[in-house]
């Protein structure tokens, strides 16, 4: 059973998760391409003491199709790089965790290691990372290094699709393993910085990771010294058994997509069983449930907002996560129910930004505090501290003493 209070995160993407969000947003349509927009969102989230924010990213343009451009000109297209956004937010925030999304399919682990470790340094220990696989041909065609067939979402159980998805997650697992080894390739005391002796670094405390696998061969060490958290927080989005296993092996936090309280219990049970199956030695995954939220003062107004957005979109909006339309009080009751069913917290996806984020921070959060479900402020420390995760010992330092 979860503790008394829950973890609360927000997922930021463009002008909101609904495809027509830009049509009703109180922000200017071009604001997602400005630094001020992102700093304003982060400041709003931090003012409410949210645990972390995630920043979506992909290597192809947004589309209403599963793969490839849809030709639509009535929806937001284009985005800024998630890691670069997080780097901009780091010196302008003090407490909130910053978790950008990157692809493991078309990005080298060494680059991922240095980018996220740098973010952890400049944020003072608040960096996270959400690795994602890129299963779309449209993304692969931007690089020309590999062939990825077009997947039919209705036939993902076909043997070829199962093989491809399995390979992509296996590759992602190797990528995370390489990144984690590189994060440890500098011991905490590798930097001597002794001007009198002229010794800046102890070469014996820098380590080659010497990883050789099917997809990567990486020698190391990293060019970035070990960061404040030692290992920045790794988060994964998971919907089914293969990504559950990936999260159990490689992540600290998993975002899941239940539809009701019974589904919450089933997912939590499956993830805990998967942790045992893969022999997880790390602390148990922090399980956060995703919800797309459209909030208003009354249920009728919230439903009308959703209907208007759907009308502008030209179809009913569906998502991998459940869509909630109602009042902040109703949402607080739902979160309490799901929290009792077993999740450690929630990652809320605002349907329209900044409007639904403001409703979360200024109305939902107080409602949760009134129910004793969310803390009043930040206790201090790193993102790991905030999530109740210990700072891992350096694997190479441990090996040297055994």
UniProtKB/TrEMBL annotation:
Gene3D superfamilies: Luciferase-like domain. Residues 26-332 form the Luciferase-like domain. Transmembrane segments: none annotated. The keyword Kinase does not apply. It holds the Pfam family Bac_luciferase. Signal peptide: none annotated. It comes from the Bacteria. Keywords: Flavoprotein, FMN, Monooxygenase, Oxidoreductase. Belongs to the NtaA/SnaA/DszA monooxygenase family. This is LLM class flavin-dependent oxidoreductase.
């Amino acid at each position: 059973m979860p503790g008394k209070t829950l973890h609360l995160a927000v997922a930021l993407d463009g002008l909101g998760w609904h495809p027509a969000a830009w049509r009703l947003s109180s922000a200017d349509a071009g604001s997602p391409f400005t630094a001020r927009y992102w700093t304003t969102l982060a400041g709003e989230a931090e003012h409410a003491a949210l645990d972390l924010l995630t920043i979506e990213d992909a290597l192809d343009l947004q589309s209403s199709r599963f793969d490839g451009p849809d030709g639509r000109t009535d929806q937001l297209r284009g985005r800024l790089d998630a890691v670069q956004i997080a780097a901009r937010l780091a010196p302008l925030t003090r407490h909130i965790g910053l978790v950008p999304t990157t692809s493991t399919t078309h990005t080298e682990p060494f680059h991922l290691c240095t980018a996220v470790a740098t973010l952890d340094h400049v944020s003072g220990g608040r960096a996270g990372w959400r690795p994602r696989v890129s299963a779309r041909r449209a993304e692969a065609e931007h690089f020309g290094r590999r062939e990825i067939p077009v997947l039919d979402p209705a036939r993902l159980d076909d043997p070829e699709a199962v093989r491809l998805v399995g390979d992509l997650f296996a590759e992602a697992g190797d990528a995370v393993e390489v990144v984690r080894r590189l994060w440890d390739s500098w011991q905490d005391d590798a930097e001597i910085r002794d001007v009198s002796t002229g010794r800046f670094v102890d070469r014996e405390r820098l380590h080659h990771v010497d990883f050789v696998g099917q997809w990567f061969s990486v020698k190391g060490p990293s060019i970035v010294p070990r960061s404040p958290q030692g290992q920045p927080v790794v988060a994964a989005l998971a919907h089914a058994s293969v990504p559950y296993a990936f999260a159990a092996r490689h992540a600290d936090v998993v975002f899941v997509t239940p539809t009701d309280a019974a589904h919450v219990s089933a997912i939590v049970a499956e993830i805990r069983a998967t942790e045992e199956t893969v022999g997880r030695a790390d602390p148990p995954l922090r399980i956060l449930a995703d919800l797309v939220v459209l909030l208003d003062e009354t249920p009728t107004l919230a439903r009308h907002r959703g209907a208007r957005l759907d009308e502008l979109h030209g179809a009913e909006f569906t998502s991998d996560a459940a869509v909630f339309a109602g009042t902040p009080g109703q949402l607080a009751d739902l979160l309490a129910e799901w929290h009792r069913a077993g999740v450690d917290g929630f990652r809320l996806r605002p349907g329209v930004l900044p409007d639904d984020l403001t409703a979360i921070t200024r109305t939902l959060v107080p409602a949760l505090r009134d129910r004793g479900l969310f803390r009043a402020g930040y206790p201090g420390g790193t993102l790991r501290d905030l999530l109740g995760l210990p700072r891992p010992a350096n694997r190479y330092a441990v090996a040297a003493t055994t």
